[in-house]
Amino acid sequence: MNQQQRRRRSSSTIPFGYSIDEDNPEFLIEVPSEQEALLKVVPMIKDRSLSLREGALWLTHTTGRYLSHMGLKKITAKMP
Q1: Which pTM does this prediction carry?
Q2: Of the candidates 12, 38, 43, 46, which lies 20 to 30 Å from 57 by C-alpha distance?
Q3: Of 29, 45, 31, 30, which is closest to residue 78 (Cα–Cα)?
Q4: Cα 1 to the chain's mean position, in Å?
Q5: What is the pLDDT of residues 17-64, one digit of tens each?
């Protein structure tokens, strides 16, 4: 396995920015493109230059993976 970060699954929902580890389905691995996209959009949401809905649409368009605005709200609440 390459140097991607792994974490143990805690539910059946796969969080945005992660995918199931094919070698061990009990673990999740980071998806670098989704992680980078989150790092770009979260600061814009926190400084209110972008709404949650706009940010979620941008992430969906950029990464190809759907994320609701409420899902993005939960993510932004956890990030510094």
Answers
A1: 0.83
A2: 12
A3: 45
A4: 21
A5: 999 999 999 999 999 999 999 999 999 999 999 999 999 999 999 999
